[in-house]
């Protein structure tokens, strides 16, 4: 098949932005031709990657994947205006300068966030009739509230209504809508997406980076070999509710316990101040590390922290960090409810606690210290086994390939032969 990938984010951007690249390489490995349309890399700093110069359009080849980049406004700070300019500029540029690269594709996979990606999705459907699989990685407008961008006010209600209708139209015009957690599937069904067009496809991790073993950073960071290390690595924002982690870690006085916090975000300064006030000398901020150091950073940890502050959307959110931690074979402490908590319990990789209960978080940390590094390693192995069975790249690429093949087979276009159907039927529902 000739497959298109439409995503505002792509390599060399790190973290969740790297997952479309993992999919692209997996599809090429399975014999497909893949064409990507994306923006110029600026995530997560909001600064244009120094290896690039902004232009209207750039065609390049990254490894085995053909990539077309289109201009956008680089931004990833707390500014509403900046973020809107970032999203809208990509959507408009992809329509004007990007989607021509999709001509002749059999089907397109769409990273269906931000909502402005609907513009090139609609333009492609209207002008070329290419079927699309929209992967709902965020729910709009819900994600604005949990991210701190929805501050209420007189215009909040009509804005939410506009975005809700916009999202429904995007899903209605997609051939198939994939979702990443059971709770998201329930919400999409309640919002009118037909059950026969919904497919459960959880995300995967970059297994070249997130894998068990490898050298660690303990010697470089001055951490003793027998210390129990808890790691949070990711965005330091409002949605993660990391105040509970700081308070809990500060309350644990085990001499062998170290808490590492790696990343950047709008809440970083407030968290550093909170640690200073708590006298948490065993809590260390590492800043944002490059993606190539993540294997070593994960190997440094004995247990990894996932935080989602209490919010209705948090119960159905499945942050990509979940799969990354399980793939790395690390034990998990999740201060989260709903689908994330269910994965942690089902995997037997660790514990899930109330995100607002710092005392319960501290209690689990103390218990983790009693298990020691060997006990936590056993939990990590449980997590990796669960990842291999449920979230691996092999499973994810197979599911996406099946959905794309089925969409192409059900949506033949004049003048083109009917695409072969997938080897197995799409995974619909749960």
Topology (elements, then pairings):
Layout: E1 2-6, H1 19-29, E2 33-39, E3 57-62, E4 65-70, H2 80-98, E5 107-111, H3 118-128, E6 132-136, H4 142-146, H5 156-172, E7 176-179, H6 182-190, E8 198-200, H7 218-221, E9 228-233, H8 243-251, E10 257-262, H9 268-278, E11 283-287, H10 294-300, E12 303-307, H11 320-327, E13 331-335, H12 338-347, E14 350-353, H13 358-390, H14 393-410
Parallel strand pairs: 1-2, 1-5, 2-4, 5-6, 6-7, 7-8, 9-10, 9-12, 10-11, 12-13, 13-14
Antiparallel strand pairs: 3-4
Helix pairs in contact: 1-14, 2-3, 8-9, 8-13, 11-13
Low-confidence stretches: 421-430
Number of helices: 14
Q: Report the sheet-strand fraction.
A: 15-25%
Mean pLDDT: 91
- Counting DSSP E segments of at least 2 residues, the number of strands comes to 14
Rounded to the nearest angstrom, the radius of gyration is 22 Å
Structural class: alpha/beta
CATH superfamily of the largest domain: Glycogen Phosphorylase B
What is the percent of helical residues? 40-55%
Give a short synopsis of this structure.
The chain has helices at residues 19-29, 80-98, 118-128, 142-146, 156-172, 182-190, 218-221, 243-251, 268-278, 294-300, 320-327, 338-347, 358-390, 393-410, and strands at 2-6, 33-39, 57-62, 65-70, 107-111, 132-136, 176-179, 198-200, 228-233, 257-262, 283-287, 303-307, 331-335, 350-353. The chain is of the alpha/beta class.
């Amino acid at each position: 098949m000739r497959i298109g990938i439409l995503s505002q984010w792509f390599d060399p951007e790190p973290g969740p932005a790297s997952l479309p690249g993992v999919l692209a390489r997996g599809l090429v490995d399975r014999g497909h031709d893949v064409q990507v349309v994306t923006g110029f890399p600026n995530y997560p700093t909001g600064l244009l990657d120094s290896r690039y110069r902004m232009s209207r359009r750039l065609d390049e080849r990254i490894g085995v994947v053909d990539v077309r980049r289109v201009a956008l406004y680089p931004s990833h700070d707390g500014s509403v205006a900046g973020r809107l300019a970032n999203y809208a500029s990509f959507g408009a540029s992809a329509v004007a300068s990007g989607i021509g690269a999709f001509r002749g594709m059999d089907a397109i996979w769409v990273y269906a966030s931000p909502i402005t990606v609907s513009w090139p999705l609609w333009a492609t459907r209207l002008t070329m009739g290419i079927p699309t699989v929209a992967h709902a990685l965020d729910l709009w407008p819900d994600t604005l509230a949990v991210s701190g961008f929805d501050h209420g006010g007189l215009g909040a209600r009509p804005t939410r209504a506009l975005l809700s209708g916009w999202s429904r139209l995007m899903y209605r015009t997609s051939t198939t809508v994939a979702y990443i957690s059971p709770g998201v599937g329930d919400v999409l069904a309640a919002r009118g997406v037909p059950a026969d067009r919904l497919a459960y496809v959880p995300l995967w991790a970059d297994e070249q980076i997130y894998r068990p073993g490898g050298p660690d950073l303990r010697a470089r960071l001055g951490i003793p070999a027998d210390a129990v290390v808890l790691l949070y690595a990711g965005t330091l924002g409002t949605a993660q509710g990391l105040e509970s982690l700081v308070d809990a870690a500060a309350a644990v006085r085990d001499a062998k316990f170290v808490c590492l916090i790696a990343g950047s975000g709008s809440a970083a300064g407030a968290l550093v101040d909170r640690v200073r006030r708590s006298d948490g000398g065993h809590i260390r901020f590492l800043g944002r590390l490059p993606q190539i150091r993540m294997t070593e950073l994960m190997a440094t940890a004995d247990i990894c922290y996932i935080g989602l502050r209490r919010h209705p959307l948090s119960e159905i959110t499945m942050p990509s960090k979940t799969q990354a931690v399980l793939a790395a074979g690390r034990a998990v402490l999740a201060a989260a409810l709903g689908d994330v908590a269910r994965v942690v319990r089902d995997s037997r990789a660790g514990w899930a606690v109330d995100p607002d209960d710092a005392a319960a978080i501290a209690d689990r940390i103390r218990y983790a210290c009693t298990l020691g590094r060997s006990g936590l390693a056993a939990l990590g192995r449980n997590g990796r086994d669960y990842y291999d069975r449920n979230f691996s790249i092999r499973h994810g690429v197979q599911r996406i390939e099946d959905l794309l093949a089925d969409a192409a087979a059900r949506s033949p276009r004049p003048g083109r032969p009917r695409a072969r159907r997938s080897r197995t039927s799409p995974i619909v529902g749960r």
